[in-house]
Design goal:
Helix content: 25-40%
Number of strands: 8
Strand content: 15-25%
Structural class: alpha/beta
CATH topology of the largest domain: Rossmann fold
CATH architecture of the largest domain: 3-Layer(aba) Sandwich
């Protein structure tokens, strides 16, 4: 667990498709294995197909591919444009924690990858819905807390566990953004970091 100051605002930020270009990296990985990701719907399982035949790759094999992807590619992900500059500015006004669902064995690689992109903030490797973890993380806080994620279920989980937390729905890849409507349990949907930074700054300034 990271050490946080409850008297300072906090931004809890997801990594994949918020700070890092997860889908672009996954596509490169799959291409080397003669597969591709069919982005006709917002899912990975069921949408990985074999090149040439369009055969759907079985879910169990997709899970193995994802494990291999995290093991080999976490250190080499591309950054989302504007993310580093936005967080650097926000760090002058509050604390930043990266809460990312990924295998614990990949956490150090994620830290190194983010730091190389100018995002040197604490990384917590999680699993499952994020609401309960956020509730424990911010116990005793009396300053604004902002939660940023691309997946509606995590925003819903945080809304249920900590309804006072400000929730931003952010989807970096424009192809995914078209497939996913604004999350019902988010306060705002913004998919570009200059606008997201301005909104977060306004939330932090409220108190």
């Amino acid at each position: 667990m990271v050490n946080l100051d409850p008297s300072r605002p906090l931004i809890i930020c997801d990594a994949d498709e918020v700070l890092l270009q997860f889908v672009v990296g996954l596509e490169r990985f799959l291409e080397r294995r003669d597969c591709f990701l069919d982005l006709s719907s917002f899912a990975i399982h069921g949408n990985v197909k074999r090149r040439g035949t369009n055969e759907v790759v079985a879910n169990q094999e997709v899970s193995r591919l994802l494990d291999a992807f995290f093991a080999s590619e976490t250190r080499h992900m591309d950054v989302v444009p504007g993310a580093a500059d936005a967080l650097q500015s926000l760090a002058e006004r509050g604390q930043i924690v990266i809460l990312s669902n990924l295998p614990e064995m990949a956490r150090e690689a994620r830290c190194a990858n983010l730091a190389a992109h100018g995002i040197p903030y604490p990384v917590i490797a999680g699993v499952g819905p994020k609401g309960a973890f956020v509730r424990r993380l911010i116990y005793g806080f009396d300053k604004p807390v902002v939660f940023v994620d691309d997946l509606p279920p995590h925003l819903t989980s945080v809304a249920q566990e900590t309804p006072h937390v400000h929730r931003l729905h952010f989807v970096a890849d424009p192809r995914l953004a078209k497939l996913l409507p604004p999350a019902q349990d988010a306060h705002r949907r913004i998919d570009a970091w200059p606008e997201a930074r301005a909104w977060i700054e306004s939330v932090i300034a409220e108190r």
